[in-house]
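Submission sheet (multi-component)
Chains listed below:
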Amino acid sequence: MMNLKKIMCACMLGLPYAAFAQVAVTPSEGRQMVAEVQAAAAKIRSLQCEFRQTKQLSLLKTTMVSEGKMYYQGGTALRWEYVKPYDYIFVLSGNKVMLKSSRGTDVIDVQQSRMFQQIARIMMHSVTGKCLTDDEDFSVDMFRDGKQWVARLVPRQKEMARMFSCIRLHVDPVGQMVTSVELVEKGGDTTLIEMKNVKKNVSLEASLFQVK
Amino acid sequence: MYPSKHLFSKSSRHGRACFHTLLCVLAFLAGAMPLSGQEVKKYRIHVNSPKGHVSGICVMRTDTAGGVMSVVNEFGIKAFDARYHARGRRVELSGLPPSLDRRMVRRVLATDVQVLFAPEAELPRRRTLTWGEGGAFTLYNKRFKIEYELQPIEDVVE
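Outcome: structure written.
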């Protein structure tokens, strides 16, 4: 009976570790993973996908879900369009950012705001995984999580570090594409952006990225 | 429904007292408990002021004792949290960015947010409230010319 109790205790103590899926990889494995993602990112001229954004609000113990479409053009332009439950468009093109809602349109010069510059750069690089080598912006650790790779990015810049504890990119090693981005805020809230119906290197209308 | 005769005998005076106490407690609970406890509401929020305008999403959970609120931008990045205590109509703000985390700003914002939690209640001084369609409402702070427009939004169906 005592032996059975000991076995049960050992099993219960071991369960949390068995359930913990993310496994840190060695530095060399991590560098290999990053290199593969970068090589794939270099081949992306354009990207189009749908996304689902789930915001966990820790204080309210509830979630906020929104959906939309994303268009990316070769490192120069990004369109992030929310379709439901609200309409909102963010277009980054060169040094200009356009914010458009049912109430009107604002055009902002990214050069005038360091914070906006950082956000714009991170958004552009996150969708392809290029941010894994943004040493200036993040320290990066790589993990395996089942069949996926997970990159844990911890902000180095003061403004970003004030807002986010870390950002996690989930990468499909087969397609070598970012499948989801998880933003973990300092206060405990998280935002998960899942990308689906991803189309690479399709022709995109220039009008999608017009700032007006 | 009523206990059998033997419970009213002298020997079961204690049992009768317990039964009556239980009846009183059940009656109190049936009358006092609200049918639904807390309500979650989600709004699109636009804030217009002489210095510019911002927009985002306001999510609040309220009950008879008060409520909690989170205001985020469309990307889900937190602007601030608020806790409301109905008794005394007190608001506690947290998570404010440095640009808003100043005494005067906190005081004005807390008073305005108090109205957002309970728009049907008496308004603080120098504020007006107008109702739109479908539960939309607009609060205007006349002194600082700040307008808060709230438009209900539906949940995305899974």
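Remark: Chain A touches chain B through 25 residues (CB under 8 Å).
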